[in-house]
Amino acid sequence: MYYPVGWPKRVDLAMPGESASIRHIGCDAVKILVAAVGDDFLGIWYANPLIPIAYFRRTEESLRQYGANQLIVWKPDSRQLALLTASGALLLYQLDFDANGSGILQQVDPPAASLKRDSAELFIKENIPRLSLRELCSVTLGSVITTVCCISLSELLLATQSCELLRLQWTELEHAENDLELPALSAIKLRDIPFYVQQQPQQSSARNVPPLSMDSYVASLEYSPFIGGCAAVFSDQRAAFLIANHLRFETDHMHGFWVPDVEDASVCSVNHKFRLLAYGQESSAVNVYAIDDATGGLEFSHRLMLTENVLPDSLGSVNELKWSPDGCVLAVSWKNGGLSLWSTFGALLMSTLSWDFGLNVDLVRQNPLKLRRLEWSTEGYQLFMLKQEPEKYKSNVLQLQFVKSVLSMNPCMTTSPHILLQGDDCLYLNQGNNLELTYAGSHGTFPSSGVGSDEGISGDGDCLELKQSPHTGSILTESKYWTVLQLPLNYAATNWPIRYAAIDPDGLHLAVAGRTGLAHYSLVTRRWKLFGNESQEKDFVVSGGLLWWHGFIVMGCYSLLDRTDELRCYPADCKLDNQYGHKLQVRAPVISLNSFRHQLIVLTADGIVSLFNMSKKSAYALDIECAYELDVKSICIHPACIVSLTVTNLKNELKPQGQLGGDQAETIIVNVCGRILMIQRDAGEQVPNTLLATCLASCVEVFWLSHSLERCAMRDCLWLYSGAHGMRVWLPILPPGRERREGEHGGAQRLHSFMSKRIMLSFPLKLYPLVVLFDNVIVLGVENESTLYANEQGSHFSLPFAVMERKSQIYLHKVLRQLIKRNLGYSAWEMAQSCCSLPYFPHALELLLHEVLEEEATSKQPIPDAQLPSILDFIREFPVYLETIVQCARKTEIALWPYLFSMAGKPKDLFQMCLQSEQLDTAASYLIILQNLEPSVVSKQYATMLLDIALQQRKWELAKDLIRFLKAIDPNEIDSPRSSMVVNVKIAPPPQVNTQQQVNQNADAFNMVLGPIARERSFSTTVTSNLPKDKQASAASGVAPVTESSSSGAPSVVRRRSTKQRETFCIDLILQRHARQLLQNHKLMDLGYMCAYLDFHLVSWLSQESERAAKLDDFAGALQVLHEELELPTPFPTPAKDDFAQLRGSLRPTGGGSSQTSESGYFSLATPNGAATQSPQLQPSIREEEEELQQPISLPILKTRSGSQLSFDNFRYRRLYSLPASEDDLAVDMLPQKLSIKLRYLLQLFIEANCTDYALVLSILLQDAASISRIVNGIIRSESVHTCRRTESALKQLSQSTFEHSGSLYRGFVLTLQPHVYLLEQYIQSLGDATCSQLQDAGPATEQGVDVSTGLQGQQNEEGEFVPNSQQANGNQWTMADLNTNHHRLTRHASLESNGNAAVASGSSAHSTPTQPQLLPQNSREREGCRLM
């Protein structure tokens, strides 16, 4: 609840110009003035700013007579101080105030205009009073005074070495003369009072024996009016609790209790608010006790013991204990160094022993924080620390700054879902959804990755849209940075420090109250609002609390102007002024307040609890009416002991159910000194009765109510935090749904009349909860950390810098485990069902399983009622069962796996269940389990099975991981034996790793113990051979194994390499099979993703499949499937009549193309300008073009040329035939940019792999005329009749499908492809004529060399290059330079490797074309050539 921030500052409290050691520091009752005591001086300082006001130095004679200063005690009215000296004398000092009222600071500007202060921040508005310090008297007694404490406004309690307690009046000391030796007035002889042990009086015979030794006395003493006694530590290290029947403190009316189990006490301290007594011990522990109201004795509460980051007995004794002013924190320091903060009931908040002091600092021997005195400053925001060993020329006083939770002063803030911490002049707010809440209702974007806000909301995750209805749960995923709000200077200058702070439920407005007045801040406008009239701000002091209700600030206050106690309400939308506020006078000062819906509950100092009904008259007016009043003095010692209270509709099982969630509150819950009391309304009465108060729990620091939830299993729950005792929750126990409905109608009510309606569950927490998010089942807190900026001993920054970090913890699994342990599985199931939508719900189930598994599997004692089976049955009710099991196993030691899977099921069965439920990622996680529990061959088999399924479902990332997993399996471990039997470690624990090394495997060693029985046994049944299987087989057959190395257990290198290649070959077969399926189904995008993710060599594989899977029979159908896959409009809509009927009729294919495979060259036709290369000899002259333009034609007709290689230009075709541009030609590209890039990449791959069919379809899909030109020209160069006819047939088929549908997307583009069709027809005809003529002339000579696809006769030249004879027949003989150029162009991308395919082993000439297939029989080629004619 308290958290340090910043560096521990070194402050100098010595006399001006001197460097003296400070012996003690004490603050007055209101923590405004600070008294610093040196050996011979006393200084009075102002707390903020820390400046000196008055000094007093003792004389040399006084020092010789009374000794040096030791201890300082303030009078409650801050007008006198009592100083205890080393010789046991008491010196009294008077502090006089200046009647003029002028402060000690006179702020005068210099005459120079440039040096004058223009900013208000440069002026100190605080009026620091002028004080004077003088010595009144010195008091000595007949015995040495050992310690002193103040017990009331007018009395002091002194302890002497004669084991007596003296009660003195401040006024008696004031009117006494100097050096007065007072007699023992009102002396309490501790040796004469009875002492009790463990709440039982001692025997009568022991009463005459002094319970104390003759030389023992009180060494430490502290009094508390709320417990009516003192905590004392004697010089013999015994601890006691002294109590009197009344405040007269006479011997006859006093008795004491020996503190049990404390025999080495060193110091003591008292918590007034919670009525606790803390005793520090020499063993570095602190025992805390509470007061038992029944017997008046001591009751053990908890023990403070630091166990982390410390060595045993390294801390030393506890030398100081100091409770914070609000009683929420205990500061503990040790003799050997170190400081720690503990909450009221024992939760560790901070420890300097876990700070980072650097590598050169030994915290055991030379701890930089060896402290001997601690003192809290104003409101607990600063802690003064006195070091044990003063450093030369350095002050021994350190000041540590703190911030604290608003719950410490304003408990009504438990309803807030935000973490709000308050410092002395600033606020720390951790609100993850502040942007969403601030700008809720306005449309905006948060750009990411450089995306501007003007680009709008995109669907691919580039921007984040603000939610219209923000949810508090977003605080869990937001940043951990703190929003620091500095208090405005105009308010903080005169009203320092902050006493109360509050935030509204929406997190949009904050309110703070300082010494006087009020201010509030808006996170929307980022502005503070202050009182316009400063006198109104100074006229009231906020007390009891501060809260927000429907846009109003509600507070309890004391009016300095009217001298009355009031309730005030100010609207947030108006300016702060009394004319807009609402006042309601109350009878006594307000101690605490809280709200529930439209009701306000107020506790006043007279012990009366008042309930008010609030209603809004208008946006700026509020009406408050008192409903009833309740006297609670009977349940508490004093109203100040009531830590917090609230009103709710929560009820226990003794009351009828009524209407849950009603607006009227029926119950008052009060926290009295850590005990939770429930005050309920009696039947037929309107006012709750304190006689019906029920104690629900004890040792409670703070509590929350979850009455604001709707349709949640955790509705109407009471949440309690008890420090070291952990978290507690008071849950309603609901019967199953059917029985619950019958009970509501009156039926079967008797079946559950014996069942408890509520249950209290407890579980530990690792952090101090500040916020409980009920709908997110998470608690939020703050932890302290440190950062070291410099490691220089003399530097101011040598000490660590304290920082804060928000932490969170899930508590769902804690509650579920407690419910299942108590056989309340249905309630646990209902609670878990309400949380299934949370993103971390599987993680909560995993934590539930992990905790139970760790506890039971590592237990050395037998567990007859194991909880793991019940937990597994519970998790099995949810669909994340399989995921939870494997995630828990992977984060647990392998030694615990057998115990887990003996109850959860075999991993192979769980793997099969994952495949059946299509949880592939979870199944992949089970492979790690199988690899460790099963032989490698099993894990390989299941991984291969999963890889096949992952490829089918397009899980590319998973497939990539599976391939890496399969390749990582060592081939030599495939046959390694590994036990597949799951053994329960509770029955037979698995052997240790070094068991085989410790046990002698020699048979003679067993014969010595077992006798002749061991000799009769076979060696193979006794000892497992370490030889590999191949060597065992060879040894059994009598043949010695042949090895290539001297190692008996290592396989040969050749075998390992071949096995590795075999594994890779199997993986490649799986990938190739799946790629073939994708290609046959026209899933080109999936094929591209597969190539990208799995590093699949697509080009080399496509070159092998160019005549198999990469062939297309239905080009129009393939285009239609591609459109469906890419979610594009259909390319062939409903057919309709158009103007191109004649053109469609003339484009119908005249003959069916051959479906047999043919030669397909592997080439690259890309040119720098992106156009197809064509021979200048093939370009027609301008005169020829003009002649063709004059001929009336209906279809594009080209003159037959005698060349064997033709080319075409689309632009020239349009210019030549003057085709009109249709609307489709002018349409914008329908493909998105990213999709177009992907398709063009695939097109390039298909062209490189010589898959002309798919390349043609992709070119049409992209409407890329240049690519089609390259494809057609490449086909013509290949001199393959089959390829040319297939391409011609494909273009005609696409043209026919396009012209049959009037709305086709490719109608205009297909028109530009008609010259390609004609060009292919002319080329095929020319090749056919040349083939037939050569066949007739050559006759049998054709066997010498005929091309496979075209039937053209060819021969090899001297260079070994293949030259078609058709070129010679046409009269266009190529030169060797042209052939070499064409050869290099053809072989530029010929780098295919197909796992040692026939290209290497065929023995073909190195100068042949790389894509030349195997030759077919000659007779088939002759028939093919004739058929083509």
Please give a structural write-up.
With 1429 residues, the chain is α+β, with helices and mostly antiparallel strands. Strands 1, 29, 30, 31, 32, 33 and 36 form a seven-stranded antiparallel beta sheet that branches. It has a six-stranded mixed beta sheet with strand order 16-15-20-19-18-17, with no helix packed on it. Strand 50 (667-672) and strand 51 form a beta hairpin. Helix 31 (1252-1262) runs antiparallel to helix 32 (1265-1278) and helix 33 (1281-1300) runs antiparallel to helix 35. The longest helix is centred in the C-terminal third of the chain and has 28 residues, at 1053-1080. The termini are far apart. 38% of the residues are buried.
Mean pLDDT: 76
Instruction: Give the low-confidence spans.
Output: 199-209, 433-478, 654-661, 743-752, 979-983, 987-997, 1013-1057, 1136-1228, 1338-1429
Helix content: 25-40%
Termini Cα gap: 98 Å
Q: What is the total tally of β strands?
A: 61
Strand content: 15-25%
> Structural class per helix/strand content?
alpha+beta
Radius of gyration, in angstroms, nearest whole number: 47 Å
Major beta sheet summary: 7 strands, antiparallel
Shape designation:
elongated
- Please give the count of helices: 39
